[in-house]
UniProtKB/TrEMBL annotation:
It comes from Aliirhizobium cellulosilyticum. This is Taurine transport system substrate-binding protein. It is found in: Periplasm. It comes from the Bacteria. Belongs to the bacterial solute-binding protein SsuA/TauA family. Residues 1-25 form the signal peptide. InterPro entries: Peri-bd_TauA, Solute-binding_3/MltF_N. GO terms for biological process: alkanesulfonate transmembrane transport. Its main location: periplasm. NCBIfam families: taurine_ABC_bnd.
Length: 337
């Protein structure tokens, strides 16, 4: 073999290695969608720990609602996202293949119906004839409709507007709305000139429980199990810190300041919002009660019940026989509290 042949072979060999490395690097990229909710794990978005621990190049993108995130997943623009159970039930009922691999929180006081001072609403019995709003197809929208139904009212008795949270805040402040079912930062804003009438936790106790979760497109989930496990591990770390070291999450903490920088508002508001969360330990999440029970899992049951409610309301056309395929405890296997 002459020198020219050797050099040519070497160049092609190097080119093949570079191509292989580039292809591998491309496989290590993922787009992750998040919302403005205050979560302990959001600090890992701000400081880059998710990328560091998973070894993936992560493009984090902020969205205003779960419905928007599911649209992005359906288009292929997003592979992983943080969503609520109502848009989750709607998306899967319409055929979108996704899996919940981590429950961020369940119905708590971090979401609530706030009514405007001067609206004439002092109790739930005063809602008839009023103008209320929630983000489209959100867990808040679902719970607002469920609340109205539980009171024996319909959308003919109460005007319900499905509009994005920034528009809810603006309309509320103008006096165009009597109330809004919202989460932070809108929740904090509405409280400035209103009062909490009922919380998500209280609506759940009336028969309409909800949850928020990290979900992944099913193909991405199947192809990247180690990524999801490491991603869940980062969340576990921050949730454990929040549970065991309250000083690390108070108003003056670096964590609260990081959240404010990422999500908006003040460190004080973020620290307060965190205390409103209703969090589950990894072991409880992985149990049959929530993600690990297949057909009988709590998450699958909530999805099906929510889908049935949405169908009754004309929001979706079909309820699937089972929602078990949309939840998995695989990423939490072996996790400790």
């Amino acid at each position: 073999m002459n020198i020219k042949t050797i050099l040519t072979a070497a160049v092609f060999g190097i080119g093949s290695v570079v191509a292989a490395v580039s292809a591998h690097a491309a496989d290590k990229k993922v787009v992750v969608a998040y919302q403005t909710d205050a979560l302990p794990s959001s600090v890992a978005i701000a400081n880059g720990e998710f990328s560091k621990e998973t070894g993936y190049e992560i493009d984090f993108r902020k969205f205003n609602s779960g419905a928007e995130i599911f649209a992005a997943i359906a288009s292929g623009d997003v592979q992983v996202g943080y969503v609520g159970s109502s848009p989750f039930a709607a998306a899967t009922s319409r055929g979108l293949a996704v899996k919940a691999f981590y429950l961020s929180s369940i119905s708590g006081i971090d979401e609530a119906l706030v009514v405007r001072n001067g609206s004439g609403i002092d109790s739930l019995s005063d809602l008839k004839g009023k103008k209320l709003a929630a983000a489209p197809v959100s867990t808040d929208h679902y719970q607002l409709l469920a609340l109205i139904k539980s009171l024996g009212l319909t959308e003919r008795d109460v005007q319900v507007f499905a509009i994005p949270q920034p528009e809810i805040v603006a309309a509320f402040n103008r006096g165009d709305l009597d109330g809004g079912f919202v989460w932070d930062p809108a929740l904090t804003e509405l409280k400035k000139s209103g009062k909490v009438l009922v919380t998500s936790k209280e609506v759940a106790e009336k028969g309409a429980p909800t949850f928020s979760a990290w979900v992944a497109a099913s193909k991405f989930s199947d192809d990247n199990p180690e990524f999801l496990k490491k991603f869940a591990g980062v969340i576990n770390k921050y949730y454990a810190s929040f549970a065991k070291d309250k000083a690390a999450w108070n108003t003056d903490s670096a964590n609260a300041k990081e959240l404010a920088k990422l999500l908006g508002g003040t460190a004080e508001q973020q620290a307060s919002a965190l205390n409103n969360l209703n969090l589950l330990t990894p072991q409880v999440q992985a149990s049959a009660e929530w993600l690990g029970g297949g057909e009988k899992s709590g998450a699958a049951k909530i999805l099906k019940d929510t889908a049935q409610f949405l169908k009754d309301q004309g929001k979706v056309t079909e309820v699937l026989p089972s929602y078990a395929e949309f939840v998995t405890a695989d990423a939490l296997a072996g996790a400790s509290n």
